[in-house]
Amino acid sequence: MNPANSVQDLVKSYYGKRLKRSEDLQTDVSCSLKCGPSTKSACDAMALIHPEVSSRYFGCGLVIPESLGGCHVLDLGSGSGRDCFVLSKLVGPLGRVTGVDMTDELIQVSRKYVSYHQEKFGYKETNTDFVQGYIEKLGEAGIQYNSYDLLVSNCVICLCLDKMAVFEEAHRVLKEGGEMYFSDMYASEPVDEELKKDARLWGEGLAGALYWKDLIRLVKAVGFSTPYLVTASHINIQKPELLKQTGNVRYASGTYRFFKLPAVRDEGRELVTYKGTISDHLQELHFDSVHTFKKDKPVEVDGELAMVLKASRFASHFITEPAKRGEAPLKDEPQQCCHLNPFLLADTLGSSVQKCSEAQKATLCGNKTEEASKRPVVEG
């Protein structure tokens, strides 16, 4: 049997038949109280999501980036549709959100509530649809290439055997300047092949979690920009038998973003100034764990990040100009790839993913976390 097909069948059965709600996950990894900054708009949208959709949420972070109005978004492994419905509210009636999932039961749940959320959001027509298919084979599922502004995914790529195929398809379906913004589980070292033979560890995402350095290698090999790490949390495995199986391997949830850039790029450093024009981010834009752009304050960045800001949907929100020699504005100078290590960032933020009670889940948008005060940032 094809190993990829075997893993797909296992995961479909695990999430379609065995898991009925997020609390059924045995590793307690699907709920994070510190999984990223929440905006008022995102929290307002979350409050409108149907309870059945929310109860079958199996993600490990928030996949809600900034400046979403009018965007065409594709969710890889959309599950019950929670993230899709939140995003459909944020992109507005002129935007469009498509979810792709291989699991019959979850596709049925998400499709069941399309009209419900259309009415909740006050839209004349729905802007959300769901397609059954494999994220390693988006073309076969009918997803058009070069057609999306944004791809999101939430704790799904760790369930796929062929990660390279996922990222290659992601690169194909994105428009030039498009972004992939996703949360997933990562391992502190390459996962032993013996762990990959365990069905339960595959279902929980532990067997298929990428070594975080391999993510950087894969996405750059496909042609994406360097990844930017937005936020991270440690994953606490609370089952003694699973701790024994995984041994010295540690796990973290990390949210990364990277971009499909033009083939011809300007490598020179540039001064970039945020205009303060993105809703919910009027005073500053938290781009990643290294870069927080303050309104009207220029920051000198490297050529690749400057190209990201010029080629993407962020272009209208920034003023860019070549850096002048002799001036000494604030610079971004991350050391090697340490700034991309989700384990180091989780240490800095002091955050971890654990099992959440219903009362704790209610505080996700109600309380502010301490992340903002702990983030290492380059400010402008």
Q: How do the helices and strands line up, and which of them pair or pack?
A:
Elements (H helix, E strand, L loop, with lengths): L2 H16 L21 H7 L4 H5 L16 E5 L5 H10 L4 E6 L2 H9 L1 H8 L6 E5 L15 E7 L8 H11 E14 L11 H5 L6 E2 H11 L5 E8 L4 H7 L4 E9 L10 E5 L9 E3 L4 E4 L4 E3 L1 H9 L6 E5 L19 H8 L2 E2 L4 H4 L9 H4 L3 E2 L1
Parallel strand pairs: 1-2, 1-4, 2-3, 4-5, 5-6, 7-14, 11-15
Antiparallel strand pairs: 5-8, 7-8, 9-12, 9-13, 10-11
Q: Please, what is the average pLDDT?
A: 84
Instruction: Estimate what percentage of residues fall within beta strands.
Output: 15-25%
Task: Give the helix tally.
Answer: 14
How would you sum up the major sheet?
9 strands, mixed
Succession of helices and strands: HHHEHEHHEEHEHEHEHEEEEEHEHEHHE
Q: Tell me, briefly, the overall form.
A: globular
Model regions low in confidence, pLDDT < 50 over at least 5 residues: 15-24, 26-37, 354-364, 366-380
Helix content: 25-40%
Number of strands: 15
Q: Structural class of the secondary elements?
A: alpha/beta
Measured distance between first and last alpha carbons:
54 Å
Give the key terms:
380 residues, alpha/beta, 9-stranded mixed beta sheet, 3-stranded antiparallel beta sheet, globular
